[in-house]
Amino acid sequence: MRTGLPVKATSDFIQAFQIEGHGVRGRLVRLFGVANEILSQHAYPEKVARLLAEMMALAAALAAALKYDGIFTLQASGNGPIGMLVVDLTSSGAMRGYAQFNRDRLAEIETQQPDPNLPRLLGSGYLAFTVDQGPETERYQGIVELTGATLVECVQHYFRQSEQLQAGLKVAAEFGQAGWRAAAIMLQRMPGQGMGELMSDASEDAWRRAFALMASCSDQELLNESLSSEDLLYRLFHEDGVRAFAPQGVEAKCRCSRERVTTMLGSLSSDELRELSIDERIIVTCEFCNRQYHFGLQEALSLKDTRTTHASIERDTP
Fold this sequence. Notes:
Layout: E1 12-19, E2 24-31, H1 33-39, H2 46-64, E3 71-78, E4 82-90, E5 94-101, H3 103-112, H4 118-122, E6 125-132, E7 140-145, H5 151-163, E8 167-176, E9 179-189, H6 196-215, H7 219-222, H8 229-237, E10 242-244, E11 248-249, E12 251-252, H9 258-266, H10 270-276, E13 281-285, E14 292-296, H11 297-316
Parallel strand pairs: 5-12
Antiparallel strand pairs: 1-2, 1-10, 1-11, 2-9, 3-4, 3-6, 4-5, 6-7, 8-9, 13-14
């Protein structure tokens, strides 16, 4: 990701780091204000909100491991009570996310099992990673079956099946007095490490050690705002040496706008617009930020006329 937004100290950022001499790099993510702002825009049940908070932290960690200029999207879809979790993050650090769920089915599952795991909540489905760098480039997408009891296990399954990369992940999310907060730490083994059998063995040992140290990090440490990212990384990896790089800020920011909604309405037929209207009004609600856009029916119908006129002018212009 490119350096974009300023960093809110210890609050909302992605911290890149490298364990010295071992060919292991990583990302530490903390989303405290961001996670709470996005989740507070909807009245999500606790289990839905927790999964979406974890999804935000995972998306930030995964996006930061890529070189792209555009939008990274992480999406989990299934046939369970929670039908979809989706988070996207621009290369400049603007994040948004939402969840689709069936409240009645979710309540039924919770009655049967107070603490259902991911397969019970999402059912069978898929996990998708998408990188969109604009209309002039080819969109990349990787899709794997949802396999695992947690979102972390599903992501690690993706790495094993699709990328053939060694990566380790740990994620935490909680609701406290200040609202929701989420965090994640990710390790990635760099390709091409080791020269010969002895170096290869040393590299393997270093990777296993780094993975074990990462796994020792508690949820409380990940989510402790009074523990700086540098102090946390030092606590985990100081014996091997760790170098922290400049962090990137993350903010909660939706990309919806009245202009985009206007373009969408202008693409619909007159009959479709009339079907959408209630009492001669059309209300379009953004699934991500829950913001509403209001249009009169006649105003919406005129958008199509304007769009048609503009298209005619463009065709007639030499």
